[in-house]
Specification:
Length: about 280
């Protein structure tokens, strides 16, 4: 009966289209905890997140910290109202291994992109941030790019000030993934990062809102036809190779960490660190 029902309706699951070793959380966690940049000019690998407002950039930072701390955290402030960007400042988040000791990678959050030309972060500001020209605490202005005479403009950025990995964060639950304006902006940022040699990883968030089978059981993430279609669509739109796109469920309503949520976050985090390390080792 079940086989007949499946043949008459759209069955949302398929054979695994990517393999994730579920139940290996502790092994993956130890790999992350042992990471150390080999380039002696850099104490901390810098990861810059960008994408549309409400995509889950700050939530991803909180989710990574939650995995590493073993408890739910919320230092990167978020807002459930996706109609207006909540992050305004150029803010870098350091995650503590223990009191006084931080992980050798940091996440820099940016103001979100908005459809149209009169809102959201300026693309030129993202380019300058990747080059290390924007200092911590700068308030993004949707209507103007930072000038060289601004006190928050870094005239002589070091390698550590510069971005080593660009992470594009996209809300998978939106129908078209990206509007025309944001697609153009993100392509422009991608091309600029490519010109600088900066590796790029894409994160698809809110995957449990896309596929009911994933909401029921997160281990269906790499069996979901709906998520595979979303990933293929994003690959075609922005040009990311599929193996650099990671579907992720951020922590949102949970009050305790969960092994399966940790597993998909760690999978993305490992690719981010590996990409950044390769970049630093080939300068």
């Amino acid at each position: 009966m079940a086989a007949m029902w499946r043949s008459l309706t759209y069955w949302p699951l398929m054979e695994d289209w990517r393999i994730l070793q579920w139940g290996h959380k502790e092994k993956d966690l130890q790999l992350v905890k042992k990471y150390q940049p080999q380039n002696k000019e850099v104490k901390q690998l810098r990861v810059l997140l960008h994408g549309p407002i409400g995509a889950g950039k700050s939530s991803f930072i909180n989710s990574v910290e939650s995995v590493l701390q073993g408890r739910i955290t919320g230092r990167a402030l978020t807002d459930t109202n996706a109609q207006e960007g909540f992050t305004r400042k150029h803010t870098t988040y350091k995650i503590y291994k223990q009191p006084g000791v931080i992980y050798p990678f940091v996440f820099t959050d940016t103001m979100g992109l908005e459809e149209g030309t009169d809102g959201g972060v300026c693309v030129e500001d993202i380019k300058l941030a990747m080059k290390g020209h924007i200092k911590e605490g700068y308030n993004f202005d949707p209507h103007s790019v930072i000038s060289e005479d601004d006190p928050n403009y870094n005239m002589e950025p070091t390698l550590e000030d510069k971005v080593h990995v660009l992470v594009c964060v996209i809300d998978a639950s939106t129908g078209d993934l990206l509007g025309d304006t944001n697609l153009r902006k993100m392509r422009e940022v991608r091309l600029a990062a490519s010109d600088m040699g900066i590796p790029q990883v894409a994160i698809l968030t809110k995957i449990d809102d896309v596929c009911p089978e994933v909401k029921t059981n997160l281990r269906n993430v790499y069996k979901s036809k709906l998520l595979k279609e979303k990933m293929d669509k994003l690959s075609a739109m922005l040009g990311f190779p599929p193996n650099f796109i990671f579907p992720v469920k951020n922590y949102h309503s949970e009050v305790d960490t969960e092994d399966d949520v940790d597993a998909v976050i760690l999978s993305a985090l490992k690719r981010i660190l590996d990409s950044g390390e390769e970049f630093l080792n080939h300068l």
